[in-house]
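Newbie here. four chains, one complex. Structure please?
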Amino acid sequence: MTAGHRPGRSTESVDNYLKAILALSEPHGGRVMSKALAERLGVAPASVTNMLQKLAAAPAPLVEYERHRGVLLSPAGRRRALEIVRHHRLIETFLYEVLDYPLEELHEEAERLEHFISERFEARIAAKLGHPRTDPHGHSIPTLEGEMPHRSSLLLAEVTPPPAGSASCVYVVDSVSDRDATALRNLEANGITPGARLRLLPGERFLVSLAEPATGDASAQPISLTREDAQEIWIRPLSA
Amino acid sequence: MTAGHRPGRSTESVDNYLKAILALSEPHGGRVMSKALAERLGVAPASVTNMLQKLAAAPAPLVEYERHRGVLLSPAGRRRALEIVRHHRLIETFLYEVLDYPLEELHEEAERLEHFISERFEARIAAKLGHPRTDPHGHSIPTLEGEMPHRSSLLLAEVTPPPAGSASCVYVVDSVSDRDATALRNLEANGITPGARLRLLPGERFLVSLAEPATGDASAQPISLTREDAQEIWIRPLSA
DNA sequence: TCCCTGATTTAGGTATACCTAATATTTAGG
DNA sequence: CCTAAATATTAGGTATACCTAAATCAGGGA
């Protein structure tokens, strides 16, 4: 082995499996199938099976796995996955706030570093940042205790716009995805960042405009989003 | 492979071999033998031979290696080694200045992270720190262009103190080693950090006292160092 | 119910980077 | 100059994490 004495006990690769299982099980809360994992991790399905078998056979398994029935995080596995997500999001926040990284370059750097920082590093950047609760993309940062603060939000791509002729309605941008740098740059250029007010125009899907934070008035010309863009944006009702 | 798309081209392990060859060849400037490398890297001599053969056989070799005659860095290998050393020392400086790490914990964290930061990360922390020329241990930081600024200094363990009865003489602490955290904590507790004035008392080896920066006067009771401590301290004459 | 298709798993193989034990080379002492 | 000790190399093996190709399994439609 070449990555021997890492602060955490697991390898970079194992960390990535755990993170992927967490992310894919989040929507439905159930078991995750190998194919989905293989796709997300960019490896062959056979590699996934192999890894899951090894993980499940370990003395203190990080996953529960049954042949042909998919995989689930064990409590320990979930704790580790959340620790890595916490690292990732704290690092992103740090790069953004302290090192002035552009929004769309946060993910790649954090994706690498999240596996290698010590507890001390984590603690120090968290303190420096004033223990932030969300990262620059609007995602919740898991707590030190391994709790993931829940946020309820809607994927813009799945929201039906108000019927033609009726009034438009205003939402708040809850978060944007960090995984596609190009889309992210595009959204940012249009002012669509976490906290922004988004007015859904009636009738047409994915036709929106920015709204003034205070008044809710439209402040710019309509923005026509692609379906792909809408897949990257989570919104919540203004009131909540 | 598990550490795929790293900013640099080489692996963590290869980086460490290059750094070790650089460090061990620095004193005499000549070839480095497998045994010395094996000791420094904490691997078996056979593993070193293996790695050197592979490195030397690569299309654009990072080392020049001849069986039984030791190894030398190629220009490309030296460039890469200096890049990693630059990373290491910039990270140490950053951890110390920005994240308030204690001196003796810099090395371990930097040793891990040096392999994984991007060019952008390097550039940003260098800018944030005002492009420092030395790290908190007093070591020169290689330039972006791959030059290692030379500093001439003497290992305290090898300096003969002034003869008994004659005057003591004053040196400046040029640098302290970063590899032994315990020794480092001890030195720091005694005020022996880069830039401190050190008065060598006559006769006894390793018997020193701190001196006032301005006057050169002794400002404290004598400090009795062990031979091991003296192996960790580099000094230069006051004038230089 | 049966079978077909897609998903999953098994089998067998690659590359990296390490190990130990056995062998070979160099060098320094007599 | 020749041998013994120190050093280096070869040979063969382990573990991780990936791959492809060849079985095998599970669930839905005829």
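Moderator note: Helices of chain A lie at 12-25, 34-41, 45-57, 75-97, 106-113, 119-128, 181-189, 227-230. The CA atoms of residues 62 and 77 of chain A lie 4 Å apart. Thread marked as resolved.
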